[in-house]
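Here is one record:
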Amino acid sequence: MTQPTPVVSRIPRVPDEQLAPDDVVAAIRKRRGGTLLNLDRMLLNSPAYAVGWNTFMGAVRTSLSLDPKLRELAICAVAVLNRADYEWVQHAPELLQAGGTQAQLDRLADVDAAAQDSALFDAAERATLTLTIAMTRHVQVSDACFSQIQAALPTPQSQVELAGVIAAYNMVSRFLEALQVAPE
């Protein structure tokens, strides 16, 4: 992805002096290691929504058995496909930390080509990219596409978790882009 362009949020983020309720803010800070992101400050415009988001996305980020590299690969591909700069800025470093390479990140500029690139991506990674493309662009997933996932990730748990990650981060990117949340 290219460098993010400066963004002015459509709705103001909650400023530090107005962060509330304290228990909600504390739970988000705990999940984030003490820091609030611009996304969190936007969510805190609706504390009830922020609670649900924090619980759900906390589970998606930390409680799944899915290989973190596949999780982050799918998230980065969603970011590229949806032109969600914030998501890319947050998760490209996570992909590297999970074992991805700079060459893989660079190749994701063209997700379709990346999904066919057997030199940079193994079978599970290509299947992940193919499923991400299908779910993000078309919603419906062909039997052929899902067969690739079943071959690469043989357990129903891993298949459900991957589909869930892709769905969740499509939600995230749509929220970020609709409200034009600026990257940190």
Remarks:
- Residues 156-179 form the longest helix (24 residues).
- The CA atoms of residues 101 and 175 lie 28 Å apart.
- DSSP finds ten helices and no strands in the chain.
- The mean pLDDT is 94.
